[in-house]
Task: inverse folding
């Protein structure tokens, strides 16, 4: 998902928070500038970095975990401009609206834990190797359990946006501490179904011919059946590995239907990355199964 694309969350427009400083900040200074604390844990010999935000000295009884989209980039970064350094935060600002009993947490993507120049964002090999649905679920599951041990929350809200939505859906089937789920700008069916749907929509709009639509659809199916499934660990020069694409082939609707907790589904009618057409399956299936 292009990080410049915007959505509305908690009635706030996504914004880029910044301030001007004279030198490149340390990671601690960068994170604390926005009121967050950097924390780490180790699970199955894997180091997981996450950030927490809270207000006041009130006892913390509730947790909110945000699972961001697919953009391979850090949550906090900096940019040097005309000899001055901007501190940048790519969260959406809703953490500022929480009340004192809440802890707000976000998990850093593997490979982006350091201090990173926004104009020179790397694509770490470790990110390519580990990036998958199950790895994100594993890391989020570990963070929630760690924070729950510290605070024994009576409410745990997890909301995921874009790629984070299917992560949140599967995570909620694994982590029984989660009490509420947000499924935002996600797709009910896998990405490859949405790619095919997009080709049919383009045809019906008159943007491409029937032959072109069929050609592209057949190429998509062939790629999924023969290329993606053939080598799930392949790393090439593309944005994502076959491993990543294959892992997200699990239809999120299958995970949502396993849940018996409140779910807030939010979609955008003109979203080109997660078309609303497939998302209509969610209310239909929930109604059919009387959930």
Result:
């Amino acid at each position: 998902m292009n990080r410049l694309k915007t959505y509305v969350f908690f009635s706030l427009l996504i914004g880029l928070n910044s301030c001007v400083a004279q030198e490149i900040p340390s990671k601690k200074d960068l994170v604390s500038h926005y009121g967050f604390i950097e924390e780490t844990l180790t699970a199955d010999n894997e180091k997981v970095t996450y950030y927490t935000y809270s207000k006041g000295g009130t006892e913390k009884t509730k947790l909110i975990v945000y699972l961001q989209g697919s953009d391979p980039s850090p949550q906090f970064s900096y940019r040097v401009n005309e000899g001055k350094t901007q501190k940048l935060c790519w969260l959406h600002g809703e953490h500022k609206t929480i009340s004192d009993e809440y802890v707000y947490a976000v998990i850093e993507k593997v490979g982006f834990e350091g201090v990173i120049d926004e104009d020179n964002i790397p694509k770490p090999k470790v990110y390519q190797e580990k990036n998958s649905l199950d790895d994100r679920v594993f890391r989020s599951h570990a963070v929630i359990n760690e924070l729950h041990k510290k605070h024994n929350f009576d409410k745990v809200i997890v909301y995921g946006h874009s790629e984070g939505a299917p992560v949140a859906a599967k995570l909620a089937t694994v982590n029984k501490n989660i009490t509420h789920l947000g499924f935002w700008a996600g797709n009910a069916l896998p990405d490859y179904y949405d790619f095919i749907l997009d080709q049919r929509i383009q045809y019906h709009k008159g943007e491409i011919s029937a032959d072109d639509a069929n050609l592209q659809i057949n190429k998509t199916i062939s790629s999924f059946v023969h290329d993606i499934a053939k080598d799930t660990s392949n790393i090439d020069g593309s944005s994502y590995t076959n491993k990543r694409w294959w892992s997200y082939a699990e239809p999120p609707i299958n995970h949502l239907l396993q849940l018996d907790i409140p779910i807030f589904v939010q979609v955008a009618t003109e979203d080109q990355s997660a078309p609303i057409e497939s998302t209509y399956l969610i209310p239909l299936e929930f109604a059919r199964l009387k959930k």
